[in-house]
Amino acid sequence: MKITVVLWMLAGSWFIPAVHAFDHTYESYNQMLTDYVEAGSVHYAGLKADPELLQDVLEKMGHVKKTEFNQWSMKHQLAYLINLYNVSTLQLVTLHYPVKSIKDIGSFFKGPWDQKIVPLFGEMITLNTLEHKIIRRWYREPRVHMALVCAARGCPPLRSEAYTAVLLDAQLDDQSRTYLSSPEGLVIDRVQGVVYLSAIFKWYGDDFESVEGFVEQYGRHALTNLKITYIDYDWSLNKQED
Hints:
Elements: H1 2-13, H2 27-36, E1 37-38, E2 41-42, H3 44-49, H4 51-62, H5 66-69, H6 74-96, E3 116-120, E4 123-126, H7 127-139, H8 168-179, E5 186-189, E6 194-197, H9 200-203, H10 211-219, E7 227-230
């Protein structure tokens, strides 16, 4: 009788679904980025033609439970949240593509960043909630502004690789240097004594201990005696030209 019970329990255990750990290498997301992102520009038409790929990537990220998330290191958490923001933005734009700008999505009363498009801990939240109430509030990392991509040409480029905990510091440093070496991020006119900065530094200036210090560190230019002016933000879509 005991043998029968044990055998029944063992047999029954074969039908218990395996619990898979979250893939912190982001293999499927990396493959999608490799296939559809080049030099920061996105092949939205290709993503539109293959909706299951993007949906699969987003669903894998969205299955993370809060209890599991809370056991991760801060770097694992932040890498995950940055990736989730960027994938959700890709999903939002792809669902409405073709559009000329992400700002064309939604309405006057409920813009693109107020759409409940982000799957997090069993509920759908907005990009605004993810960025402002979670990432900015709890992680206090100014370099995230170089990594969160709002699907516009004026924002920092979307990397062709996922953010990971192991590489996070190096990736954020690289993003900061890349953006501040581009005309969207930083232009210096020493003849006129003016430095033109991305409007990101105006909108989120309080997130930086010192905007000038950040720009000097990653832009590698001294801003002494230069007047700061902000660049008009280019909201045109960060798409690959067809």
